Give the backbone structure.
Amino acid sequence: MGSQVKRIALSGYYGFGNSGDEAVLQSILLALEDEGRRQGIGIEPIVLSIRPEETERTYGVRAVHRMRLSDVARTLRECDGLISGGGSLVQDATGVKTIPYYLLILKIAQFFRKPTFIYAQGVGPVRRPLFYPMIRSVFNRCRYISVRDEESADLLAQMGVRRSRVEVVPDPVMGLTPRERNAAGSEPKNGSERSGSKPVIGVSVRFWNDDRSELDGIARALRMIVERLPAAIRLLPFHLPSDAEASRYVMDRLGPDLPDGTTLEMADGALHPQDMMAEVGACDLLIGMRLHALIYAAARSVPPVGVSYDPKIDQFLNRLGMKAAGSTDDLRPERLAEEALRLLEHKSEWLETAGSAIERLKREARLPAQQIVSILRS
């Protein structure tokens, strides 16, 4: 007799072209597959996506349109459970409809008496107290709850979710690895192999301030770096098309008159999360605003230099024993440049300091999959 198969739906910010959220999805899919194999059951995922055909093509899984609630309800009725997450789903910073949507998906599954699981979510900010009882009611009915930082666990406790039921784990992307071959079909190389002795500096930016002051500051910092050390600067857009536009803005501010030996380019074609992870792994340093750019860097033992626009950046860096080199409110180019140059010069010392934390985070990133598969199996 073959092993049993459990069908599990996944709800998150999937199909929107955000490399970070797609990396979360890929990480969860791989962790569930590996853990199912280890525990002797098959896992059949069904992803709720805004572009289901694209999700099916990219990941080789079944997908349904996340906004067609009749299809979603039918899927949840047929499934053995629902995973909500990861990512920052339970927050109202992006709009008043975000929390009600994700809670509704959970409530539909709970209506059909399906086990529901919160997978390494970042909770908050929740600025509207009217959401507190709704979140408490839905989360307290979940079979398993994991969040990606202590602050999320504390916020849930304030809302009345029992703290003893909440497990704090790393972002699932810490458990992701690159594919064997990159988009060009060749084995990924590290930064020094790719550009000779010249370091490769990856840069992940996004629009934030209306006056673009944060991008101007990053461009000035990059100029300071290359005036002291010739480098290959490689812009890595994580969320298309907006991050590509932000990257072009930084490239324009750097100007055409770069110091001798310095090159400037933007990565393209790295649409799959594991291909973008290979791009980050080919760098000697990563300056990043995007959380998952910094996570990719740490997972590939590339020193990350964070520019914080959200507490989640600081919370992740704290777990590595690091601090952001600046924020969108207070970005000093000279400080950012000095931190980047310091890490480039002392990469081996950084690895010695952060290496054990990185390995621990990679192991702990698989804990939610272990727990969820165990519950489904029993």
Remarks:
- The radius of gyration is 21 Å.
- The CA atoms of residues 317 and 323 lie 6 Å apart.
- The chain has 15 helices and 13 strands.
- The domain at 191-361 is CATH 3.40.50.2000 (Rossmann fold).
